[in-house]
Amino acid sequence: xxxxxxxxxxxxxxxxxxxxxxxxxxxxxxxxxxxxxxxxxxxxxxxxxxxxxxxxxxxxxxxxxxxxxxxxxxxxxxxxxxxxxxxxxxxxxxxxxxxxxxxxxxxxxxxxxxxxxxxxxxxxxxxxxxxxxxxxxxxxxxxxxxxxxxxxxxxxxxxxxxxxxxxxxxxxxxxxxxxxxxxxxxxxxxxxxxxxxxxxxxxxxxxxxxxxxxxxxxxxxxxxxxxxxxxxxxxxxxxxxxxxxxxxxxxxxxxxxxxxxxxxxxxxxxxxxxxxxxxxxxxxxxxxxxxxxxxxxxxxxxxxxxxxxxxxxxxxxxxxxxxxxxxxxxxxxxxxxxxxxxxxxxxxxxxxxxxxxxxxxxxxxxxxxxxxxxxxxxxxxxxxxxxxxxxxxxxxxxxxxxxxxxxxxxxxxxxxxxxxxxxxxxxxxxxxxxxxxxxxxxxxxxxxxxxxxxxxxxxxxxxxxxxxxxxxxxxxxxxxxxxxxxxxxxxxxxxxxxxxxxxxxxxxxxxxxxxxxxxxxxxxxxxxxxxxxxxxxxxxxxxxxxxxxxxxxxxxxxxxxxxxxxxxxxxxxxxxxxxxxxxxxxxxxxxxxxxxxxxxxxxxxxxxxxxxxxxxxxxxxxxxxxxxxxxxxxxxxxxxxxxxxxxxxxxxxxxxxxxxxxxxxxxxxxxxxxxxxxxxxxxxxxxxxxxxxxxxxxxxxxxxxxxxxxxxxxxxxxxxxxxxxxxxxxxxxxxxxxxxxxxxxxxxxxxxxxxxxxxxxxxxxxxxxxxxxxxxxxxxxxxxxxxxxxxxxxxxxxxxxxxxxxxxxxxxxxxxxxxxxxxxxxxxxxxxxxxxxxxxxxxxxxxxxxxxxxxxxxxxxxxxxxxxxxxxxxxxxxxxxxxxxxxxxxxxxxxxxxxxxx
Length: 902
Known about the structure:
Elements: E1 36-42, H1 46-49, H2 53-63, E2 68-74, H3 78-86, E3 105-109, H4 116-126, H5 132-139, E4 154-158, H6 160-164, E5 175-177, H7 184-198, H8 202-209, E6 215-216, E7 221-223, E8 229-231, E9 240-241, E10 266-269, E11 271-272, H9 282-286, E12 291-292, H10 295-309, E13 313-317, H11 327-337, E14 344-346, H12 357-362, E15 372-376, H13 380-385, H14 392-404, E16 409-416, H15 423-439, E17 449-456, H16 472-486, E18 492-496, H17 499-509, H18 516-524, H19 529-534, H20 536-549, H21 553-560, E19 612-613, H22 618-629, E20 678-686, H23 695-709, E21 725-727, E22 736-746, H24 752-762, E23 769-775, H25 782-785, E24 786-797, H26 803-815, E25 820-824, E26 830-834, E27 839-849, E28 854-863, H27 873-884, E29 888-900
Parallel strand pairs: 1-2, 1-3, 3-4, 4-5, 9-19, 10-13, 13-14, 15-16, 16-17, 17-18, 22-29
Antiparallel strand pairs: 5-6, 7-8, 11-12, 20-22, 20-23, 21-22, 24-28, 24-29, 25-26, 27-28
Helix pairs in contact: 4-18, 7-8, 10-11, 10-23, 15-16, 17-21, 18-20, 23-24, 26-27
């Protein structure tokens, strides 16, 4: 049964449009025709989750499978979460509005070490026991079930963090999906469908799933005393393979939210995997081999996607976009094809050594976006240690090219706390920034500004630096060094990562199964992801208390003290000439409070994630660590010789590098067509769920509708051309309407019936189009002609009232000449206004009783001028209160029509 959430998703919660599930290109498959019913969740608030590319791709792929249905769920805001708990309403999937317990399988993306608390919050809100043991125990109680022989769905996780080291979260999930999910999840669906038909028990079903490469079932494995993990039964693999899939750009097209998201654009993946070999970079190690997407597929997906979604911006995604050799050709081809549509291209952080005029030419549009590079370290020696493969000359060339192409501000990413780092290397960050500023000066140009993010190195599993860490004290000292140095440099904004977050990420990310109880207790103490932003001290305190209560504070102190350290003297202040100091033997994790001191063989100590087969040989990681200590560089194997990391082969495939086609000739920048040949006035409504979409979101929707419909809209001039669409006035969130007005100005005449037909085709059904009329170009805009508005308001009296009393109150208001109201202006000043001067018509339309209230529907016509001379619905309640000496509640607002003057 669907949850009665319409009573919870109301205008009094923040951004109710998050929970509607009615986005453009959302897939609504019939419930009864599906054999297996999935819910996928990116466990963050909607604005983050709904724009995640992996979430969109897997949602589309699962819904493309026969007899499989996929819905979505997100972390609700605090206000809705409170409502759910107060009313004992379980968390629901946004499209079907069904409780999560009605589905067969519920999957979470775990892409951040501290993100598991959000998953526990969602499970708790759904009424699902948090651990697999608790769910198993509940299942043993018996009963009639509709999903996979249990009253609860199978719970699994995927994503980068789940793949790299699932052990800290092993207690919470029935299984973990390792690596790429495009092929893995459909395989899981087929096994579940067969198991459901056969009536398999939960244990037998999980045993079948464990035979699929890429599926890890933690309950079939035990942790040894040293933290390593081994099978507890002979019929499961000793090591679980990471899955690798080929990117398919067509599945990236989908889900156009009505509310603004963090990545409010079409995103297309152009290359998966990175072989640069940066020794700190976990994504680069976990996504090998590198696989280019065919340029024609990328171009087709972008063109089709922009037409289908109506976005005015697209992004090309890769761990290293610049290593996609076809980038300039693809970007220029799309820019030429869409040159008349005011489209912009953005790229994530790029390789500065590959940034050139070809890439600069395809970026932005009329809206030149930001530019981000990641030098990572301030000196050549440190960049060699981390295998960045970037020289000072290449850094300067890339930055200078950007400056010469018109960028006045560039964002740079650096890290501190890297192995072998000295104070000279830390100060080298400031020296490098200052040097770049000096080299990029010219007459008539503003000085080059930098926005710096300086993060604390956090060691990650499956990287050569997984055996290293730095004390929080040392991080703070290095941050202070840089703060002092940057005080002398103008035009630089510096942001530092909080050292406490870094230490906690390290502690959890390299932990074992003992940390599951810490994660759970931290959640119980209020350490949700949002708390890191709202109250970092409270969140850190919750994690700290959870660690102490689990008797693991001794181990956390090791992380804080940097005792997973490559250099015995790392925590001691080193002089600038210390780079010539001989490097010492690496140490390892201390597993218990009384463990012996580290030995030269400690790199062989088993690690909690050794049973995860990522394809990279652990022996190679040790060898690459030694190369780091010698500041030796390993070339990128996509373009040079094999680095022998162990990935390439039958299980994982090989690097796929596609040579670039010729770069098309530049067809010219977008020139906004400001010609106004025709103006059409549209009368439309706002009904149903669309009443919960804000005015700004409605404006964005109109822009996308016009783009999808291919209507020849005129643009404003200037630096940021905007489509000439003017909505007469805003409507309050939650209010419905059957009388809104918008003006559209076109560059080419379009028949009124044709315009209306194209608009209706692309509009949501809850925004009906009532009428379209051509008006003279010289006619003032509707917003200037507004005079009055007619409303129907539903009002409740908090005591029993007869229809006669309602009518008497209405008549009393109409008989008065003055009803004074104290109004507070935006500047905070108070002024008395006569509401009766603004009221022109008032009548009682309907009256009925509920169990506890007397409810009336009242129609009124009041002033609605844009100079502030207007009568609001809540002011009608004020007038009722004055004449009735009682309290009233406004239940609903419906605007019948806007009335324009001549």
